[in-house]
Structures are given as C-alpha cells and as structure tokens.
C-alpha cells in the first residue's frame, strides 16, 4: 500500500474524515477553514470537520485527476499516485482554481463555494485554464543553506 492510496475503509493511513487536499494544506499552498490538525503518533494529519464539504472536495479532486490525467501522465483510475503526482495535482489544481476565480487566497472551502455559485457546478469550471496552470505548477525548491 502506498501513502497516496485513496482513503477508504481498507486504508490503514487515512480516516473517513481525512482532508482530501491535505498535501496542499501541509505544503502551505492552500488553507481551509474546515481542516483540523491532529497528531497521530509522530505524524500530523488533517481531518475535515464537514461531511458535505469533504464530499465536494472529493468531487473536485476526482475531476482534477480525470481532466489532468493526460497532461500529467497520471496512472488510470483506481491506480495510486506517487507523492509528487498527488502534490502537483492538489497544489496546481487549487492554484488554477484560485486564478480562475480571481480569489485573493487559496482557501479551499471558500473557493468551492464561489465556484458552485459562479459556475453552477464543478463540471462547468474553465478546465482548459485549470489544467494548463496545474501542468505548469512546480514545487518550491528549498533555499540554499536551509534544511527542508
């Protein structure tokens, strides 16, 4: 089992309330007012405090993966992503959504509300622009002389 396996009843690493965009939040590429940090052994995990919001995030994450599959050369549906692919998908996808909405901050819950209001649903988002931004996203390199 990999660390990037989708959360579910058989996953030993994630709970049913795990934040869908946890990698982006932990990388400080986005924030979410509904994410709650918890310590599990020596790891820090993020859990969503809203079942409805988590469902909406799951829908957006699935659409991001589906629409960016070719551009990012992602494995097929049901196949796990490596950490770098998942990070790029989450961080780049949220950055693309932030730019498409003209949001001042990449606040996941707030952006999902604006996206639903403006476009009526996630299927109607400007996917060409989102995928283009997602494909160009690169992780920030650590500065020279600092430890990661």
Fraction of helical residues: 40-55%
Summarize the biggest pleated sheet.
Answer: 2 strands, antiparallel
| Poorly predicted residue ranges | 1-12
Run of helices and strands: HEEHHHH
Instruction: Please state the CA-atom Rg, rounded to the nearest Å.
Output: 15 Å
Q: What would you call the structural class?
A: mainly alpha
Residue-averaged pLDDT: 87
- Count of distinct strands: 2
In short:
By secondary structure, this protein is mainly alpha-helical.
Index terms:
148 residues, mainly alpha, two-stranded antiparallel ribbon, 5 helices, 8% strand, globular, disordered N terminus
Please provide a written account of the structure.
- The protein is mainly α.
- It has one domain.
- It is about 45% helix and about 10% strand.
- The protein is built from 5 helices and 2 strands, in the order H-E-E-H-H-H-H.
- It has a two-stranded antiparallel sheet with strand order 1-2.
- Strand 1 (about 35-40) and strand 2 (about 45-50) form a beta hairpin.
- Helix 2 crosses helix 3 (about 85-100) and helix 3 (about 85-100) packs across helix 4 (about 110-120).
- The protein is globular, with a radius of gyration of 15 Å.
């Amino acid at each position: 089992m990999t660390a990037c396996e989708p959360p579910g009843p058989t996953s030993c690493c994630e709970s049913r309330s795990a934040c869908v965009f946890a990698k982006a939040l932990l990388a400080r590429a986005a924030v979410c007012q509904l994410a709650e940090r918890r310590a599990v052994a020596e790891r820090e995990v993020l859990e969503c405090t809203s079942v409805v919001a988590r469902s909406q995030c799951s829908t957006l994450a699935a659409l991001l993966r589906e629409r960016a599959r070719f551009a990012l050369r992602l494995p097929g549906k049901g196949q796990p992503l490596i950490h770098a692919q998942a990070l790029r998908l989450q961080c780049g996808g949220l950055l693309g959504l932030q730019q498409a909405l003209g949001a001042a901050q990449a606040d996941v819950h707030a952006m999902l509300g604006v996206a639903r209001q403006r476009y009526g649903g996630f299927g109607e988002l400007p996917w060409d622009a989102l995928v283009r931004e997602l494909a160009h996203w690169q992780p920030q390199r650590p500065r020279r002389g600092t430890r990661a």
